[in-house]
């Protein structure tokens, strides 16, 4: 044991640790986008929002390319509680002749776990033309870390999950 202590004491002082990444490592947050064929069992187009914290509200913006018209509307076939539509931009035309809309939704994280909710983007003129998009996110409990939000995701609200006894007021005590 004494020889181990002696060996440690003869070591030079530690220098600060520096982490270096190769030039091909992308340290920028990923953008939210719609994968045409998501990894879900139904193979629906999927917009993965990323890692979020429970009891927060997030505004999520992402582009969608499609070929079913300039004017579109969004429906919520599941009567979503966690995902609501904020806006749909005017159509732009892509190089390949498709239409592109930027969709803005509000995501409320009510419990930790995995969020999966469907929204339906469809033509305003012809309801038979449309697509379902699965909005997914992984939600972690408060205090379990601070996620790096993807580009297109921003926090818009924070709800307190539970009330504390510290906030209960029982009035002034009268001292006689």
Structural category is mainly beta
- pLDDT < 50 runs, ≥5 residues: none
**Binned strand content:** 35-45%
Q: What is the residue-averaged pLDDT?
A: 79
- Biggest beta-sheet profile: 5 strands, mixed
Overall body shape: globular
Order of helices and strands: HEEEEEEEEEE
Annotation field: number of helices: 1
Write up this protein.
This protein is mainly β and 176 residues long. It is 5% helix and 40% strand. It has one helix and ten strands, in the order αββββββββββ. It has one helix spanning 2-9; strands at residues 34-35, 46-53, 56-66, 72-75, 83-88, 92-93, 99-108, 113-123, 130-140, 153-158. The strands form two sheets. A five-stranded mixed sheet has the order 1-2-9-8-4, with no helix packed on it. Strands 3, 5, 6, 7 and 10 form a five-stranded antiparallel sheet that branches. A hairpin with a 6-residue loop joins strand 8 (113-123) and strand 9 (130-140). The chain is globular. The relative contact order is 0.24.
């Amino acid at each position: 044991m004494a020889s181990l202590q002696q060996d440690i004491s003869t070591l030079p002082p530690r220098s600060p640790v520096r982490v270096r990444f190769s030039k091909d490592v992308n340290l920028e947050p990923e953008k939210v986008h719609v994968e045409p064929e998501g990894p879900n069992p139904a193979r629906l187009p999927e917009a993965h929002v990323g890692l979020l914290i429970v009891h927060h509200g997030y505004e999520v913006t992402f582009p969608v390319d499609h070929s079913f018209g300039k004017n579109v509307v969004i429906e919520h076939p599941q009567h979503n509680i966690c995902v609501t539509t904020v806006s749909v931009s005017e159509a732009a035309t892509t190089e390949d002749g498709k239409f592109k809309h930027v969709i803005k939704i509000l995501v409320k994280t009510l419990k930790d776990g995995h969020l999966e909710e469907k929204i339906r983007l469809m033509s305003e003129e012809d309801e038979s033309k449309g697509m379902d998009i699965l909005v997914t996110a992984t939600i972690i409990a408060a205090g379990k870390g601070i996620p790096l939000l993807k580009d297109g995701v921003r926090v818009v609200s924070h709800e307190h999950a539970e009330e504390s006894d510290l906030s209960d007021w029982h009035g002034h005590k009268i001292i006689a």
